[in-house]
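It is worth pausing here to work through a concrete case rather than discussing structure prediction in the abstract. The textbook approach is simple: state the sequence, then state the predicted structure, then interpret. We follow exactly that order.
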Amino acid sequence: MLIVFDLDGTLIDTAPDLVDTLNVILAREGLEPIPFEQARSMIGAGARRLLERGLRRDAAGLPGDMIERLYKDFLSYYSQHMADRSRAFPGLEPALDLLAGAGHQFAVCTNKLESLSVELLKALNLAQRFSAICGQDTFGMQKPDPDILRRTIARAGGEIGNAIVVGDSMTDVATARAAGVPIIAVTFGYADRPPGAMGADALIASFSDLPPAVAELARARAG
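Step two, the predicted structure:
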């Protein structure tokens, strides 16, 4: 079975560094910082969307060159600080060890840029665990487009009929549903709605719950 993980809010608690970066950029523009919990709920659609949400206006209402400048500044600062405080959620590595021992493989499908995703996972000594790490720029698309998931699965050497998604948001659920892949939702991520209301096939409150949840869905897929 190929297990395809979202990154921000699922594998890694990236909110501290993302929110720090957002507030640094806002401060440079003389704007008020966003409270952590509020900014945390804005994460999940990529850095540009986080920045747009942080500016509290739609991108269409801002000069295009301003958005581009701030986006470049955001990426520049974040690339130097993305592993300052970001950490894997508790229990991730033991769960991956158990799942790998059972013959499962892993991939990452995220709306983060691929280069940032790879560098972050390398910094946390996790990159080598994944057969593919794909971001919004890998194939020129992002979730909830199901093709990014399909292509990630193919790049990892997997098959749609033998895959499971693990994510934290309605975007992850919608992507998995559109691709015809079962999804496990984590309850510790950055969802802007109750995880139980997202319609996932299973919920886990910690990574210690992941191996049995995968085993149950794998049995269901096998019929």
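Step three, interpretation. The radius of gyration is 17 Å. The chain has two domains: 2-13+86-222, 15-81.
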